[in-house]
Design a protein that fits this description.
Strand order of the largest sheet: 4-3-2-1-5-6-7
Radius of gyration: 20 Å
Strand content: 5-15%
Helix content: 40-55%
CATH class of the domain at 3-149: Alpha Beta
Structural class: alpha/beta
Bound molecules: nicotinamide-adenine-dinucleotide, magnesium ion
Number of helices: 17
Order of helices and strands: EHEHEHEHEHEHHEHEHHHHEEEHHHHH
Largest sheet: 7 strands, parallel
Number of strands: 11
Length: 398
């Protein structure tokens, strides 16, 4: 029987890579629902090729989508709207697999709905886990969801961990002989920029990643190293370890996607060409393996692999995230919300590049953290942090 897949964020970079793999394995997988916030023409193209049962867009775009679908003789595709529509398709009883590939906090409730419905959830939307942490991990346990990491580093770590790692107790300590995680970072497009140069980089430069082709927000996060900070928090939750068991390693070639160290002196690494189709296919088929178009790594063309420590003076975001994880509670949600506002402002050229971590830090300083024992507290912290960060953007921009 073929598996029915819901793709949250189908028009994005991860969504498109997912669709590419599904096209290659159309006997095994069918597309049940696709969602998009914008780019309706692309969504209609996806509908034409994959014939989903549902398409979800903001309510302001429903009429336009309906007209476009009718024009393509696709009127049988049901259109749902807004967050309620996203939640409905993510938790639909006919869905087996949910690809969580919406960017940012907007993906939290739909992703959590998929987890609570006990789905196989392929997690690309790291911000959702950064915000909700223990709540999402506990929901996965309670509802027997299979939460599989798509983020290339976490997927690599998952592949290097012992198979029964996830059956062991979740107590913040590495287990089954694991001693440490080496989370690799490419260092982004500004790895060798001076602090002075960093002050004047443009959004276009920030979005031009040396190794990966990604959406705008994660590209800027990669340039500030906030992406690695969010990933550090993501790793702590996924693998149930305290932050000091995660070491960030800058590895500019992006060939090793992360490593796991063991008490006997072993270090296991997962390697491959930098293409998100590999971790997506891994999460989709796990514990089996399916083919992708990604060519096998030719080690002879990669004669040098380098590893350096991150520079936290030029890239303070990493330390802010590590500190947020240490403090815990609503702090990671505050960090994430302030970052989303600051990145958006940078992309709109309202603030400079180095103001991104500055705004995140000031927001963290202005907002007291609380225990994050329920979702409402987290959503409220998210809203308050957005308001503060927005105010800081307005002040800086003037
Ligand atoms: P993207 O910007 O290319 O795509 C985002 C998708 O989410 C689009 O389909 C968009 O329409 C939808 N979306 C945006 N805002 C929305 C909203 N408010 N409500 C509903 N839908 C909305 O982003 P991407 O690069 O594909 O990244 C998606 C997620 O995957 C992010 O969380 C990112 O951190 C993570 N991720 C991406 C990569 C990568 O290589 N692109 C790698 C690892 C993790
Ligand atoms: Mg990553």
């Amino acid at each position: 029987m073929s598996q029915s897949v819901c793709i949250l964020g189908a028009t994005g970079s991860i969504g498109q890579s997912t669709l590419k793999i599904l096209a290659q394995h159309s006997q095994e997988y069918s597309v049940f629902a696709v969602t998009a916030q914008s780019r309706l023409a692309e969504l209609v193209e996806i509908c034409k090729q994959y014939r989903p049962r549902f398409a979800v867009v903001p309510s302001s775009k429903v009429d336009e989508l309906r007209q476009l679908l009718v024009a393509e003789q696709l009127a049988d595709i049901e259109i749902l709207a807004d967050e309620a529509g996203l939640i409905a398709v993510a938790s639909h009883s006919d869905v087996d697999v949910v690809m969580a590939a919406i960017v940012g906090a907007a993906g939290l409730l739909p992703t959590l709905a998929a987890v609570k419905a006990g789905k196989r959830v392929l997690l690309a939307n790291k911000e959702a886990l950064v915000m909700s942490g223990d709540i999402m991990m506990q929901a996965a346990l309670d509802h027997h969801a299979t939460l599989l990491p798509v983020d290339s580093e976490h997927n690599a770590i998952f592949q290097c961990l012992p198979q029964n790692y996830f059956q062991a107790e979740r107590n913040g300590q590495p287990k089954l002989g694991v001693s440490n995680i080496l989370l690799t970072a490419s260092g982004g497009p500004f790895l060798n920029h001076s602090l002075e140069q960093l002050h004047s980089v443009t959004p276009a430069q920030a979005c031009k990643h040396p190794n990966w082709s990604m959406g705008q927000k994660i590209s800027v996060d990669s340039a500030t190293l906030m992406n690695k900070g969010l990933e550090l928090i993501e790793a702590c939750h996924l693998f149930s370890i305290e932050e000091h068991f995660v070491t960030v390693v800058v590895h500019p070639q992006s060939i090793i996607h992360s490593m796991v160290q063991y008490v006997d002196g072993s270090t296991l690494a997962q390697m491959g060409n930098p293409d998100m189709c590999t971790p997506i296919a891994h999460a989709l088929a796990w514990p089996e393996r399916i083919q992708t178009h990604v060519p096998a790594l030719n080690v002879f063309t990669h004669s040098q692999l380098n590893f350096v420590e991150p520079d936290t003076t030029r890239f303070p975001a990493l330390q802010l995230a590590r500190q947020a994880m240490k403090v815990g509670g609503t702090t990671p949600a505050i960090l994430n919300a302030a970052n989303e506002i600051a990145v958006d402002a940078f992309l709109k050229q309202k603030i400079g590049f180095m103001q991104i971590p500055a705004i995140v830090e000031q927001t963290l300083n202005q907002l007291a953290h609380q225990a994050a024992n329920n979702l409402d507290v987290i959503l409220q912290a998210d809203a308050e942090a957005r308001a503060i960060a927005q105010q800081l953007v307005t002040n800086k921009g003037s």
